[in-house]
Predict the 3D structure of the following.
Amino acid sequence: MGTAILSDLLTEILIPVAAVVGIVFALIQWMLVSKVKLSPEQHPPASGNKNGYTDYLIEEEEGLNDHNIVVKCADIQSAISEGATSFLFTEYQYVGVFMVAFAILIFLFLGSVEGFSTKSQPCTYSKDKTCKPALANAIFSTVSFLLGAITSVVSGFLGMKIATYANARTTLEARKGVGKAFITAFRSGAVMGFLLAANGLLVLFIAINLFKLYYGEDWEGLFEAITGYGLGGSSMALFGRVGGGIYTKAADVGADLVGKVERNIPEDDPRNPAVIADNVGDNVGDIAGMGSDLFGSYAESSCAALVVASISSFGVNHELTAMLYPLLISSIGIIVCLITTLFATDFFEIKAVKEIEPALKRQLIISTALMTVGIGIVSWIALPSTFTIFNFGAQKTVKNWELFFCVAIGLWAGLVIGFVTEYYTSNAYSPVQDVADSCRTGAATNVIFGLALGYKSVIIPIFAIAVSIFVSFSFAAMYGIAVAALGMLSTIATGLAIDAYGPISDNAGGIAEMAGMSHRIRERTDALDAAGNTTAAIGKGFAIGSAALVSLALFGAFVSRADISTVDVLTPKVFIGLLVGAMLPYWFSAMTMKSVGSAALKMVEEVRRQFNTIPGLMEGSTKPDYATCVKISTDASIKEMIPPGALVMLTPLIVGTFFGVETLSGVLAGSLVSGVQIAISASNTGGAWDNAKKYIEAGASEHARTLGPKGSDPHKAAVIGDTIGDPLKDTSGPSLNILIKLMAVESLVFAPFFATHGGLLFKIF
């Protein structure tokens, strides 16, 4: 079997050091962003710079010394920041109550497995050994659930704080040129990416070491209890994604329909009452929600790999370095992403608008290439040359290079999904240009073309996921799939930086419009925003792809834990589960879409009321009542996020308790298979409609100019398409990947209870 080259002591040092390096790097980036001042100041003439001009002269040209603009930007920024903070605090109060209630539920369900006994019991997988009592598992699972939930909430909140801190600074930097604005937005995104990746790793590492003080040699029990960490992370992400998604889209749809279509005023015009709510929404949905979501994926893929490893030779022989292989991959990922980030901020300078999107794409390619080398090194030093992996009751012999391929194929599948998503959602390519062209004949053809594009965009990502599942399972069974998911998420810091960049640029454009800055500056922020839209779609592609792999790995761990030898589709118990599971994503999407629709209805009525009743609003002589619109969005999203959340959280509990583990395994498989398809098509359809509208507005090519300008009939048709796509791409699409992961991880955590007491209905009859 051999032993790993890397000693256990070095492993225990390397993982926290990598996490601390990530946190320090995030703080340095934050300090660099905060150098952009939000208070007007006198500029002494600067010394000549490399262009031969002085900085001072260039700044004068762009009205840099206009104090009013700086003050306006600062005011708008504080309004957005206050709105986002107050919404998140309200949301977290409701979520906090749920968190405590669910923690009690975990304790009661898992404690009752052995009737709350404190006696040691035979281990689940090795009956000849004794393991800690079920009560201990209940207590520690509850603690790790709370840890995961708190880390998830903190990740989302910090991301939102950084984004609202950076948006006006990006606007002000846009006066100096597109390159400066890009660096500010990207650095702020990197702060969030690195904080989240490092915090997730550090908290998990500390939790494992603290739990080990009690569990000692019982690694099987220890890593089973750790799965609660993934459950906590994803359950908070669900509410963050759904709540934030309903908030942002209610405001967006309301602002667009009345402002752009009815009143013919530009996007983000300060006369539009819903404009502040719209900009707040970008931060609570796309930033706080996305942060929690990717943290959940990361936590779950780590937990799935650790659970399988604990019952393989790593866990049985107590090989700590090999056991912590998933955490070592994440550690090397932080270092790789750090180097990759420097390519965007320090090594290359962006001088023209057309360089923005290639610079962001370069980030993905560089991080993937470097990470492949990193995975190779970790696999070589942290794994024995051969070892065995648990494979549904048997032990499968695996070599370390096979595990390297499992992680690498997940990593490269992520890149493929990213680029396919970009091809279907960026207005640089023919699919989106065709959608824009279809707007000539009105909104109906635009909708038909957009839906067709979304369905078609599912094909290649599904093949990429299928190939990575087949290869990684052939090499290393379920553990292979878990580490493939980790491979896809190993460059999470870069992925999140690119992702958070989008909403920050979007806000920057909104602030430029509201502060009344020149047309040239608005053009620059629009270019940043259009690139951000595509990268947001790429981020969603990553999130969905990794969710598919993560939930399959969790599903495998659940099947092993619940002691099901095979899942036979032909048995009625399993088949009814498959049908119901495949229906759940539709039910969930219906709830979230209708919530956005009804909240947007209230918003449209309020915006119309203000335009009709407030004298001087259209002329710009009086200010609209922004606060009422913010309140409508907040109230609607808090109220509407509870039913979809309850659907996802209660389904596994009800099915497992009343119908048993076989039916539940059917439900999990069904929801995974249909959820992935709907999520990809919804996200890409929405992204394509949004960028088709931007394509017409920008008028960059001859073709685009024949469709424009803003306010033309094709443009109005494009706005309607964009409005329909909003809830698809920002509410139901991204929330679906949480649905499939969360149901799987919840089933795994409650598996001991379901295996012992589940299937009440079938026991009665």
Q: What stands out?
A: The chain has a mean pLDDT of 88. The beta strands are 121-122, 130-131, 386-391, 394-399. The two ends are 50 Å apart (CA to CA). The chain has one domain: 8-38+62-764.
